[in-house]
């Protein structure tokens, strides 16, 4: 078997590619209506489609990985992402762009699967540090990918972004096929197709309502029908899952206090992270004349955001070592505290570019520790045969947090805006309220984290493999 450090590096690379998919379109998002000759409401689906696909596929991919081999499903997800990238690169119009972006969203499932692979193949003493590194890629890929996307957009045709994504996916496929060992731990049984369909329909309904509520109207028939309909489907789905022998997700395991509270904290942590992704770039890029921005170019602004990703990567070995000595609960508490400090700092100091830089460094500390803690907490509380599905469910809760943040912060920025040169731009009040919301989410994560049990649940013994 290849050296364990090489396996970790390959899985970390796939995580970077996964998070890069969500910053891929940021440089041209505001220009999409012009580029695709479509309305702004229609072009919003270029982003929404990826989000929906990621949320639906991640827990399903986790279960498939537990049953049929985690490496095999990682390879399938990479191929789906490559196919989506090629489709988008050749797309003549918005419909095929949306199809390609939907397929690109599949790759998000490689992160929880990669974390589960680490538990299967690494020596127990190395698992926590490796998990911290893989978890950091959720933020690092976005922070480092933003300036890359900006540079490509400024120097080349925007379709080239999709060719870059395809190339990254092909390289990831080759590396995983070559380096990552075949999964030997499998869960017997048949795949729950009814449960997968029910989960997909319910999630799509709720996430559609959350992500499109701003444009549809929060009390419109479309929002209420999709949101309430999705909730009803999920309630029926949960009833069904508790009554079959081989469910898609074992909800009894998911209801364990440590798992449930970790997932709730994940929603708050996801909200807090995405709020910063929405607020800080806009503050940096808005013209100075608006009274709420610093007038930086997209490329310059991306270099102010980028240090948060570097901090996450640097802190990953620290997080792993700290988790081994004190347990992952402390990591979550430190992470939530750092996020709260970042938002509190920005509420007091936001008049200079370097203030935003410091806030983003604190965001990096918060997400670096917080995201590292979650899969560790989950895997200390579930059987080894459930790690893929349980980590997938945890990733789903993080996605739910980011979806809610996108909708809520987007609504705040739209509600408190003024006309500037014929365009509605957020006011300083809008940014202040958004920062308060991000800080409030960090408080929720902190309080919930304090109540997470620290006792390791009984589970199958970890396979102790030689270094």
Write the layout of secondary structure elements.
Elements: H1 4-20, H2 32-36, H3 40-43, H4 45-68, H5 70-90, H6 94-104, H7 110-121, H8 124-155, H9 160-179, H10 193-216, H11 221-241, H12 251-254, H13 257-285, H14 298-305, H15 307-326, H16 328-348, H17 353-379, H18 387-415, E1 417-420, E2 423-426, H19 428-450
Antiparallel strand pairs: 1-2
Helix pairs in contact: 1-7, 1-8, 1-9, 4-5, 4-6, 4-10, 4-18, 5-6, 5-7, 5-9, 7-8, 7-18, 8-14, 8-15, 8-17, 10-11, 10-18, 13-14, 13-17, 13-18, 13-19, 15-16, 15-17, 16-17, 16-19, 17-18, 18-19
The tally of structural domains comes to 2
Beginning-to-end CA distance, first to last residue: 10 Å
Q: How many strands, which pairing sense, and closed or not: the largest β-sheet? A: 2 strands, antiparallel
Relative strand content: under 5%
The number of helices is 19
Q: What is the CATH fold-level name of the largest domain?
A: Growth Hormone, Chain: A
Secondary structure tally: strands: 2
Per CATH, which architecture of the largest domain? Up-down Bundle
The strands making up the biggest β-sheet line up spatially as 1-2
Q: How would the global form be characterised?
A: globular
| Average pLDDT reading | 85
**SSE order, one letter for each helix or strand:** HHHHHHHHHHHHHHHHHHEEH
Helix percent band: over 70%
CATH top level label of the largest domain: Mainly Alpha
Poorly predicted residue ranges:
457-467
Rg for CA atoms: 21 Å
**Which class of secondary structure composition applies to the elements?**
mainly alpha
CATH homologous superfamily (4th level) name of the largest domain: MFS general substrate transporter like domains
């Amino acid at each position: 078997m290849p050296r364990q450090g090489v396996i970790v590096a390959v899985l970390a690379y796939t995580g970077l590619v996964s998070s890069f998919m969500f910053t891929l379109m940021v440089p041209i998002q505001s220009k999409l209506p012009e580029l695709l000759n479509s309305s702004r409401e229609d072009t919003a689906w270029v982003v929404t489609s990826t989000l929906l696909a990621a949320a639906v596929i991640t827990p399903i991919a986790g279960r498939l990985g537990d049953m049929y081999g985690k490496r095999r499903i990682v390879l399938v997800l990479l191929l789906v992402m490559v196919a989506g990238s090629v489709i988008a690169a050749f797309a003549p119009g918005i419909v095929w762009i949306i199809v390609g972006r939907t397929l690109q969203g599949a790759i998000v499932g490689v992160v929880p699967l990669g974390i589960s692979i680490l538990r299967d193949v690494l020596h127990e003493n190395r698992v926590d540090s490796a998990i911290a590194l893989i978890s950091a890629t959720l933020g690092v890929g976005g922070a480092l990918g933003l300036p890359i996307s900006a540079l490509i957009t400024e120097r080349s045709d925007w379709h080239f972004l999709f060719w870059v994504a395809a190339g990254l996916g092909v390289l990831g496929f080759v590396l995983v096929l070559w380096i990552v060992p075949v999964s030997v731990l499998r869960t017997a049984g048949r795949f729950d197709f009814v449960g997968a369909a029910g989960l997909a329909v319910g999630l799509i309904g709720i996430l559609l309502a959350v992500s499109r509520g701003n444009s549809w109207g929060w009390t419109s028939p479309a929002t209420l029908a999709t949101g309430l309909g999705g909730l009803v489907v999920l309630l029926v789905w949960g009833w069904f899952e508790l009554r079959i022998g081989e469910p898609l997700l074992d909800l009894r395991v998911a209801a364990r206090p440590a798992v449930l509270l970790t997932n709730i904290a994940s929603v708050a942590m996801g909200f807090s992270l995405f709020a910063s992704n929405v607020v800080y770039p806009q503050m940096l890029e808005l013209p100075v004349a608006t009274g709420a921005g610093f007038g930086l170019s997209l490329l310059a602004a991306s270099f102010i955001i980028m240090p948060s990703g570097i901090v996450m990567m640097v802190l990953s070995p620290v997080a792993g070592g700290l988790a081994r000595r004190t347990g992952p609960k402390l990591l979550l508490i430190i992470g939530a505290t750092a996020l709260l400090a970042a938002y509190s700092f920005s509420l007091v100091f936001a008049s200079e570019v370097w203030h935003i830089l410091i806030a983003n460094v604190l965001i990096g500390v918060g997400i670096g520790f917080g995201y590292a803690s979650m899969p560790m907490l989950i895997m200390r509380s579930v059987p080894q045969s459930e790690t893929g599905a349980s980590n997938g469910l945890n990733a789903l809760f993080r996605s739910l947090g980011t979806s809610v943040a996108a909708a809520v912060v987007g609504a705040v920025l739209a509600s408190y805006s003024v006309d500037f040169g014929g365009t509605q731009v957020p006011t300083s009040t809008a940014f202040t309220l958004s920062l308060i919301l991000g800080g409030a989410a960090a408080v929720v994560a902190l309080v919930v984290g304090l109540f997470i049990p620290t006792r390791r649940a009984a589970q199958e013994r970890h396979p102790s493999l030689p270094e």
